[in-house]
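Notebook entry, structure prediction.
Reason for the run: the old model in the group folder had no record of what sequence produced it. Starting over properly, with the input documented here first.
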Amino acid sequence: MSTASRIHSAEDSSPGRVLGRIDEAICAFDDEWQITFVNDRAATILEQTPNELLGQEIWETVPSITETAVGEQLRDAISTGTPARFERYDNKFGRLFRVRIYPDAEGATVCFSDITGMTERVQELKETAQRLTTGLKQTDAGVWEIDPETGAVVWTESMASLISVDPDSFEGTVEAFLNYVHPEDRSTVGAAVDHAVENETGLNQEFRVIRADDTQRWVEIRAETVDLGVVLVD
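New structure, fully documented this time:
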């Protein structure tokens, strides 16, 4: 299929019309690096209209990335057929972008999202967790948070102390946390945590944990939904 045909097909297709309206920036190009699709969000970031961008070579449209890590990632993704994901700070816009590259037989699709606010929120959560840790040192309570996108779990020192484990030995996954939950409560707690993360709801539940010294302890879990996951206070 010619570049012109692919451009026409992308513009006229129902998925193309839908992608044109979503908030994430999306740009597709063929094996000759010519842009075959660009949605409104991507066009706004690139400071041109979609019609102006169609047919342009990506290296001419964004020459600043040609000899950078971004350009290298694009070329590697195309040559190996392996998807890529990375983050890049753009000095021109003063923003941090998360970039995902999906190669296919005819070229690649690139999705990029402005995550500047997200990283600022991460820092806020870290500062909040630190304040909570300080405030909870004299109590039998701990805090941990889940990243719903990666499934990663971050514990505060107070949480590790509650379970009686070394913070550095924690593997950082929900499964690792559930290993400390009593076997009879494990499936119920796991389902409740999954539901809270997936549906962005709160959580309040009692269950038993088996500490590192093999002692059993009843705990209450209280969860609050935030932008990046669920903060759980035991």
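Summary: The radius of gyration is 23 Å.
The old model has been moved to the deprecated folder.
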